[in-house]
Amino acid sequence: MVFFFSKRAETKRKDIPKDDYDEIVKLFKRCDVNKDRKLSWEEVKAGFRKLQSRFPLYRTHRAFQMADENHDGFINVDDELDKLVTYALDCYPGTIKLRLI
């Protein structure tokens, strides 16, 4: 059987504009509706919907594979948010400002 995606691809913060990075951080922090500093599956999916993703369920699944290091079903805002934001920016290179209008 051939697997096209590795379980955890390495995410690196390369030449990401600081403005775009900060916008995505704010977006996902606003999605934390119960203010518990953890992003649930539904909260992350809402973030990708705000980014006008055509496949928010797929993006959410991949985001949890990349960012949820302790596999507790939540993305911790303090520890794991950087990986989630890096993944989101890799999905939409150069189009963040247009997606957030």
From TrEMBL:
EF-hand domain location: 19-54
SUPFAM superfamilies referenced in this protein's UniProt entry, alphabetically: EF-hand
Listed InterPro entries: EF-hand-dom_pair, EF_Hand_1_Ca_BS, EF_hand_dom
Keyword annotations: Calcium
The keyword Calcium appears for this protein: yes
Superkingdom in the source lineage: Eukaryota
SMART domains for this protein: EFh
Descriptive protein name: EF-hand domain-containing protein
